[in-house]
Amino acid sequence: MKDTARDTSDEGIAAIADPLERAKALRAISKRRGNLTPAQATLYSAALAEMRGDDERKQTWIARRLGVSRQAVSKVLRRHSATLTDEVAA
User: Is residue 1 in a domain?
Assistant: First the structure.
């Protein structure tokens, strides 16, 4: 029998190659604890941005796979974009 337990450390989650699986792992932590650490929130927004990708996947597509609203995805992506803009300006 294969061990399916996941490493829930920030490093373990960051090592998940598939952005959808990474985002799902972080959503599970958020549901369990009620929030994410700042580092985990950054990993989550980066996973959503990666899922959106260059082909500009619809936010609805991402939302359905994560079980959240399109508005929630939009909010995270806007914050992610603003964070990147702030980093470039610094």
Answer: no
* CA dihedral for 39, 84, 44, 6, sign (positive or negative): negative
Per residue in 14-65, pLDDT tens? 999 999 999 999 999 999 999 999 999 999 999 999 998 876 778 999 999 9
Q: How far apart are CA 35 and CA 46, in angstroms?
A: 17
pLDDT of residue 90: 59
- Is residue 5 one of the residues assigned to a domain? no
Say if 25 falls within a structural domain: yes
Give residue 36's domain range.
Answer: 10-89
